[in-house]
Amino acid sequence: MLTQPLLEKLSALKLSGFRSALEEQSQNPQYAELSFEERLGLLVDVETTRRKNSRLQRRIKAAHFPLQATLQDLDLSPSRGIKRAQILELAQADWVQRHLNTLVLGATGAGKTYFACALGRTACEAEFNVRYVRTSRLLQTLALAQADGSYPQLLRSFARFHLLILDDWLRDPLSRSQAKDLLEIIDDRYGRSATLIATQVPVSSWHERIPDPTLSDAVLDRLIHNAYRLELLGDSMRKTHSPLKD
Q: What integer pLDDT is reported at residue 97 of this predicted model?
């Protein structure tokens, strides 16, 4: 029989997985056939798995993904223009470890945000810290930080993420000050961490949306030359999955 003090001590040690598995073992006579070491190994496995899952859920929550996306649910049909081998390679998250970038390109509604979130989740599963943010909101946050004096701390916070996802990149042309702010973030991350860009704007049009040629060259140089590219094709996913379609 398990004693209440033992269970309370396991809870105090925050071994909730161990405790629940031990209670299960005590109620199931089949476990009596196992050796002490085998039963202990099973208890440790349950606790380890629970802790790993808890850490994953915390990373996913901290990433602020707008969609619960997984690579398993991606549409990899030929009409999408995506190479399955490339997706499988990116799914390993080795590119995050190597501090490379990924560009997810495509027309409005092509599923860029879903792809970005799915790749972000695989990075979380590989135990990397991820942050998703829409570029327009990031620019607003940077402007507020400039005004209240928290700008340096904000830059440091974005530099610490193993993977930063910038969605709706360059949807609107930048001012010179906005371009400088983005360059600060990208420069801090270059060669030290990975960045994922999701955008409907072709790379060939990026220059014209950044007003200062020097800033434009600096931003592009740090983003595109060490990046994987995914260009999504096909009809709008919103149209395809609309409940009102014919």
A: 97
pLDDT-derived band at 130 (thresholds 50, 70, 90) equals: very high
Q: How far apart are CA 143 and CA 243, in angstroms?
A: 39
The DSSP annotation for 133-161 comes to EEHHHHHHHHHHHHHHT-HHHHHHHHHT-
Our measurement of the distance from residue 37's CA atom to the centroid of its chain's CA atoms, rounded to an integer in Å, reads: 38
Grouping H, G, I as helix, E, B as strand and the rest as coil, residue 230 is strand
* pTM across the whole model: 0.82
The CATH class, in words, for 66-240 is alpha beta
CA nearest 154: which of 132, 186, 185, 133?
A: 185
Q: Where are the domains of the chain?
A: 4-62, 66-240
Residue 103 in tokens: 């560009």
Angle between helices 36-63 and 16-27 (to 10 degrees): 140
- pLDDT at position 245 is 46
Q: 194-206: b or e for each residue (b if 16 or more CB lie within 10 Å)?
A: bbbbbbbbebeeb
Instruction: Give the mean model confidence (pLDDT) for residues 190-201.
Output: 97
